[in-house]
Amino acid sequence: MQGMKHEAPSHSMHTKTLRNRFFVCLLLTIPVLALSEMIQIWFQYTLTVPYQSYILLILAAVLYAYGGWPFLTGLIQELKARQPGMMTLVGTAISVAFYFSAATVFFPVGSDFFWELATLIDVMLLGHWLEARSVLGASRALEELVKVMPTTAHVVMNGAVVDMPVSHLRVGTVVLVRPGEKIPSDGVVVEGESYVNEALLTGESNPVHKVAADKVIGGAVNGDGVLRTRIERTGEETYLSQVVKLVQQAQQSKSRTQDLANRAAAFLFYVAVVVGVVTFVVWALIGNPQFALTRSVTVLVIACPHALGLAIPLVVALSTSLTAKRGILIRDRKAFEDAKSVDAVVFDKTGTLTMGQFGVTDVVPYIAEAELLAVTAAVEQNSEHVIAKAIVEHAKTKAVAIPLSSGFLAIPGKGAKADVNGKTIYVGSPNLLQELNISLTDEKISLLQRAGKTVVYTVVDNKLAGVFALSDRIREESRKAVQDLKAAGVKVYMLTGDAQEVAQTVAEELGIDEFFAGVLPDQKAQKIAQLKQQGYRVAMVGDGINDAPALATADVGIAIGAGTDVAIESADVILVKNNPQDVTRTINYSKRTYSKMAQNLWWAAGYNIFAIPLAVGVFAGLGVVVDPAVGAILMSLSTVLVAINSQTLRRQDAK
User: Fold this and answer.
1) pLDDT of res. 139
2) CA distance 230 to 232
3) Which of 187, 333, 368, 527 is the most exposed, fewest CB within 10 Å of its CB?
């Protein structure tokens, strides 16, 4: 958070400095234009003052030193790094223009073009100023996130409410949040009920109902109710701080398209230098050294790939800020760019395509039902799994006394075991029965499986004691997400540890192309690898915990439903909301971002195809000649077009 506070003034200061340089140089340009011989000829007037040429030289020297400073320092930095590019071209162009014009004051080598130098620097500064304003505008999209944080909090201390700065809050502090106020930091509701607006933080457009034990995010706006929340995260650990950090890292990270832009800039530099030298030699041999120099300077200016420096970073800055505000956090920019080419999306089932809110619908006991419920709940109360919680909740609703267990052991992808009342209890999936070599032929169980229900088995001392059937509701958003992906030509797969019948029911209801059932966590990555071997560009969508290997194996790993925990190392893209439609949105954002980058590259460099021949003087015999200042205008125009084109991302996002 602190980093963000320092960075914004830096951008603002840079913008103000360029603006000041531009207006100072613009004022100095007026007398230069008025005293220039060429301008007087064009506008048919005469103005002479004592020491006119020396006055022009002094004015030009100030313009060159003050206005040209950003370009000259940039030239030195690029040459030191042995990476000549746009600043090298600009610095070279204005240096050649100044020193040649200065020579004309003392030696009869031709006519000066001080006015061309002045206008060239003005246009260059204007282009840089506009660029800096555009970048600052992109950064402000991120600053909006920071500004949502309140500065004070109402702390509950010994029954009284005391106002104190948010920076003084500590974990465990209880705060009072009144209607319409912002929640001061991440926490959990301990008392009260209200609807909370998290739109600016997670992109969730509808207010979220909050009651006791629900988590809340710092910066969210409380509705009509009064909440008391216990602070769980402060400072750099808060959700908003993590988001800002992620966005800044993504904006600063390199993309494949940026590498292409850098190579294009270097290529254009060498082309410009070679063409500029050849142009000077050819025109000088023809017998017009000053015209030769003018053509060379124009080539250097017009070929300057200055807009390339803006083409990619501005789109990156905008896209990462806009997606963050929609609850789509980009951790790896290269993977995000790869999302545009994804032609297969693999969803984890439970908690992703389904609600992950299981409820027990059927119990098939082979021992006394009360005993079955007691021993099963005794094992499952040690687990955080949604199915385990559902079984424990069901036992509680039946008023069953749940005994203590010991020796609890989770069996990944299969279930769990524990000792209860001196007996060894196993609770788990069909895979567990296979491992224990227990067979079952019960038509009731087959009917439950065919109905698409999740079946959990309880084994007591190696004998099947009973079966629980649970169902999980499919998310409404899942249907639309699958439809949209298939309409875009993307093949949709589903991975699950559930039985074949359960997986088939869900797949058929959603219209999923293919599914993999009975897959253990460590096998998920193998399935992803198989799809990649078939030639697919694969995106894996999971919860980021037991799906970590699969997320890392996929071309694009997408962790969904991260909520306030955005520190998921295995994912390339993190979706804050548990909405499968955000997967489609992520792919669409990737396509739009790449499209803008490609368009910007053409605006930034493509015009050289036509501009360089004009600058060389190929059509001089037809009276078509481009002056250095006009070349600067054309070059800066491409910069402005790139900036405007990038901003259309924001307008498209608002639709």
Assistant:
1) 56
2) 6
3) 368
- Give per-residue pLDDT as tens, 605-634: 777 777 788 878 877 777 777 766 676 677
CB atoms within 10 A of CB 620: 15
Taking Cα atoms as reference points, which of 86, 487, 59 lies closest to residue 261?
Answer: 86
Strand spans (E) along 217-355 = 221-222, 227-231, 328-330, 344-348
Q: Contact 201/110 with Cβ under 8 angstroms?
A: no
Question: Residue 165 class from Cβ within 10 Å (0-12 exposed, 13-18 middle, 19+ buried)?
Answer: exposed
* Type of residue numbered 494: M
Task: Please report which helix (H) or strand (E) contains residue 134, including its range.
Answer: helix 114-147
Q: Residue 176 is inside which H or E element, if any?
A: strand 174-177
CA distance 550 to 559: 11
Residue type, 432: L
Count Cβ neighbours within 10 Å for each residue of 225-240 and write b for 16 or more, e otherwise. Answer: bebbbbbbbbeeebbb
For residues 105 and 68, give the distance between their C-alpha atoms in angstroms, rounded to a whole number: 21
Q: Tokens in use for 196?
A: 């909370």
Q: What is the pLDDT of residues 340-389, one digit of tens each?
A: 999 999 998 877 888 777 788 899 999 999 999 999 999 999 987 878 98
**pTM for this predicted structure:** 0.65
Which strands form 454-460's sheet, in the order they lie side by side? Answer: 359-365, 463-471, 454-460, 423-428, 415-420, 406-411
Handedness of CA 418, 423, 428, 432 (dihedral sign): positive
Specify the DSSP element, H or E, that contains 416. Answer: strand 415-420
Q: Do 314 and 597 form a contact (C-beta atoms < 8 A)?
A: no
Q: Is 364 exposed, middle or buried (0-12, 13-18, 19+ CB in 10 A)?
A: middle
328-330 and 160-165 beta bridge pairing: unpaired
Could you say which of 112, 122, 186, 348 is catalytic?
348
Listed residue (234, 258, 356, 268) closest to 313, CA to CA: 258
- Tokens for 31? 């007398």
Residues facing residue 154 across a β-bridge: 163, 176
Contact criterion met (CB below 8 Å) for 296 and 280: yes
Instruction: Calculate the CA dihedral of residues 573, 578, 584, 586 and round it to 10 degrees.
Output: -30
- Give strand pairing partners of 162: 155
Active-site annotation holds for 122: no
CA distance 22 to 12: 15
Two tokens at 582?
Answer: 């955000």
Angle at 530 (CA atoms; ends 525, 536), nearest 5 degrees: 110
> What's the full length of the chain, in residues?
655
The first and second tokens of residue 481, run together, are 């997400």
Assess contact for 348 and 496: CB atoms under 8 A. Answer: yes
Q: Which tokens go with 77?
A: 């930095």
Q: Which of 560, 562, 544, 564 is nearest to 552 (CA)?
A: 544
Q: Does 134 score more than 50 pLDDT? A: yes
Task: Quote the radius of gyration of the chain (alpha carbons, Å).
Answer: 34
* Cα–Cα distance measured from residue 268 to residue 84, given in angstroms and rounded to the nearest whole number: 10
The band of 451, judged by pLDDT with boundaries at 50, 70 and 90, is confident
DSSP 8-state code for residue 354? B
Q: Give me the residue label for tokens 């230069």.
A: 32
Q: Which residues pair with 540 in a beta bridge?
A: 346, 557
Residues 379, 383, 388, 393: is their CA dihedral positive or negative? positive
